[in-house]
Amino acid sequence: MANLELVQAQSSLAEDLDAANVFRFVLQKSAAPGWMIVKELGQETEKTEESLYKLRKLGLLESDGEGLDGFYHSTSLGYALHEASPRL
Amino acid sequence: MFIHYEFLYLPPLVLAFLIIDLSMESITLGALFFNIFFWLYWLVYSIAAETALYFLGNATNPTVSKLPPPVLTLIAIIGTTTVLQSITFKVGGKRVLDLSHYLDDYRRKVLTSSASLMSRAERGRVIRQSREILKKVDYKPGNPASESEMKRIYAEVMLFGARKSTIVQQEIAKIEQDCAITGASFGNEIARRVAQTDPQWVRHFLPG
Description:
The complex is a heterodimer of chains A (88) and B (208).
Chain A: H1 2-15, H2 17-29, E1 31-33, H3 34-41, H4 45-57, E2 61-63, E3 71-74, H5 76-84
Antiparallel strand pairs in A: 1-3, 2-3
Chain B: H1 5-23, H2 29-33, H3 36-57, H4 62-65, H5 69-84, E1 88-91, E2 94-98, H6 99-136, H7 144-158, H8 165-182, H9 186-197, H10 199-205
Antiparallel strand pairs in B: 1-2
Helix pairs in contact in B: 1-3, 1-5, 3-5, 6-9, 7-8, 7-9
């Protein structure tokens, strides 16, 4: 099951560079507020919100709040993906 | 006869090794030290390394048992790590025991719970910095001068990249609208957003 989720996440991020950038940024910081991601990556707010929603749906990120007001960190699956694809 | 004090300095060495390993994933020392899962991880590693050291020290092969104690300790740590990370026992092509899988899962659990602690610490930083921003601007709710100063701060922090001032004005209007509905403090909401967005700017803005 976890392997299937990993493959799904991997292929999904390969097609979405914005989401991949957001995921990489959160991994680098270990924990980051949504608004910090917007400024650091210089993305549009809507785009970052979409990426964060997608990453949460894929099970790669976890947060204690909704949208850009939440604080995000990687899940176990996120770290597994990072081990499987170090470039991410 | 094997010298016993090697057993005492092995756990701190294992601790140093694990800290280096996990710090490479951007986990801070504080997050590790307040994480119970990390200490359990260290305990398991230390017991395994102590066992390896005991067998190395009592090895019947004199070339092994007569190695200098620091070398034996180093071999114990490296040996433990490589053995724990690769133990897989297969019968009939099926994995009966896959210790490396459990160990990887547990390492990820340590990373996730540490990142969660860092996330909570980050929220704490935002609350602390928000209070300090309000204190520095001497914010008074409802005071037009205070409100316009908070709007100026917001615009200074939130105008970056290709963002236009109209978008920033819309965001300020949205915050004002939300505050009017919920009764939350406008100044506090602006300060919180600013602290969330740019901690470096806040550090520069605040004295000391």
